[in-house]
Amino acid sequence: MPKTCSSNGGGEAESFAEPWEYTLYIPHDLRAVTIGRRTLRLILNAHGLPHLTEAAELLATELISNALRHTKGPAALRLRWARNVLRIGVWDADPTPPEPTPLAVAAYAEEGRGIGIIQSCADGWGWYPLTDAGKYVWCELRAA
Q1: Residue 77: CB partners within 8 Å, gap ≥ 6?
Q2: How distant is the alpha carbon of residue 107 from its chain centre?
Q3: pTM value?
Q4: Which of 24, 69, 111, 142 sits most deeply, having the most CB atoms within 10 A of its CB?
């Protein structure tokens, strides 16, 4: 399936970049979505990856929104860069697996489209349960 979000346009300098990782712990607060997006933008610009920002912000927004919508506890946004791949992940306290809504239904739904957007825009995604509590949902963007 062709991607509808673009992460192309990167320079060659990023292929030699050292791996890095950031984690932002966020409270159960709707302002966390905006704070997460702005933090992500700052990190990507600081590391010379502004071409990934638009798609990464969309993906992080969906992941953080889902965590806040489906849990009552805190969450965390993790960004990891290694081998020209940006992994965006969100931990939350709910162990329930994310369930993609069928695209035909999601197109007309007022909610429940988040995982469908992630599937359309990311180069890969997944989730796994955490042993202590909750789950970790992640997606990846590959730099061109």
Answers
A1: 23, 24, 26, 36, 39, 40, 60, 63, 64, 88, 89, 90
A2: 21
A3: 0.83
A4: 24
